[in-house]
Amino acid sequence: MSCRRALAHWVFALVVSLGVGRRIAAQDSTASHTLPPFDLHGFVEVYYRSGDPLTKDGYRLRKADLKFSGDLSPHIKWRVTFDAAKTLTVSKTLTEISDTVALSDAAIDQRSRILQDAALTYTVNRALSFDVGQQIVPLSLEGTIATSNVETIERTMFIVERSRAGGLGDIRDIGVSVNGRAFDAVEYHVGTFNETGESGGSTDTNDQKSLMGRAVFHAPKFPQFQIGGSGAVEGGPASQRRERAGGEAQFRNDLVTVRAEVMSARDGPLKRIGWYSLGAVRPTSRIQLVARLDSWDRDRSRDVSVNDAIERQMVVGGSYLIDGSVARLAVNVVRQTFPTVTTVRDGTFLLFAFQGVW
């Protein structure tokens, strides 16, 4: 708790100091240098979970994002993003001594740090740019959508569930990526990173680097439709090798969204696969109704417990925008089943969320 409080105080002090610095610079007309202008955006999400047989009922501060960004020059931009809702966790290593188990090592899990993005973007032209630093890796479509724009309260399971290895989208790593558009139809993102996201913002633990990419085709005469895929590979010994492969398709306009994705992964001997299909309807500018069918197999070689069984979810719900687009109330009903095991109880639970964005 003390670590989390200290980090929250640090972020608050940063925001205050930046704001004061801007105000002083603006008021001091004789100063030879002024603080360059920057943008501040944020997103806060609080939800209540009720009825989940695997999780206790309660409130959760799901997100508290702060994004600072600005221009260093006509071609170079910067951004730094924090998630103040994150709680630091500790990775422990245990050792057996005689007939007892002792703690031999402990370290901060770098993935739990509040720092999200910290990157520089060099834009060559409208079709080519480079990102250098800690950034979202180019895996899956939903993994690259801002949390405030995701139609359901929680993302799909292959992104959210990270109990074994790492998620398969909405993850960050340190590296360099090339981003752009070719022939006015193909959107591309290709990068090399320390890992595939499982080590967070820490230094690389081995000599191998991961190569990740995502390519999407946008039909020139049908801009509401897109289809594409993403993948990643990291070499090394068999126990270290990581692979990702996925496909995506989406139709979206002002009235409806229809999206489907599949993502498979290999982490050493562990093989996983997840997929979902989603439909959303917006009868008015303030109301959105959504349904999603979701499947996630954490370990394709085993189905004996909640740690490796296939899980399926059916999500239905809706959301309502308050005061234009700055706040949203949402409710999701989630039916959760484990079709291949009888030791885990199926269940239905509710999620209630209040979100604010600026």
Can you walk through the features of this model?
The structure is a single chain. It is built from two helices and 18 strands. Helices cover 8% and strands 53% of the residues. It has a single domain, classed as Porin (Beta Barrel), CATH 2.40.160.10. Residues 1-32 have low confidence and may be disordered. The strands form two sheets. The chain has a 16-stranded antiparallel β-barrel with strand order 1-2-3-6-7-8-9-10-11-12-13-14-15-16-17-18. Strands 4-5 form a two-stranded antiparallel sheet.
Order of helices and strands: HEEEEEEEHEEEEEEEEEEE
First CA to last CA: what distance? 28 Å
Q: What's the total count of β strands? A: 18
| Class inferred from helices and paired strands | mainly beta
Classify the fold: give the CATH topology: Porin
The profile of the biggest β sheet is: 16 strands, antiparallel, barrel
Contiguous uncertain segments of 5+ residues: 1-32
CATH architecture: Beta Barrel
Please identify which CATH superfamily we are dealing with.
Porin
Q: What percentage of residues falls in helices of 4 or more residues?
A: under 10%
Question: How does the overall form come out from the CA principal axes?
Answer: globular
Please report the number of helical segments. 2
Sheet with the most strands: spatial strand order = 1-2-3-6-7-8-9-10-11-12-13-14-15-16-17-18
Rg of Cα set: 22 Å
| SS strand fraction | over 45%
Count of the domains: 1
Average pLDDT, to the nearest integer?
Answer: 85
CATH class: Mainly Beta
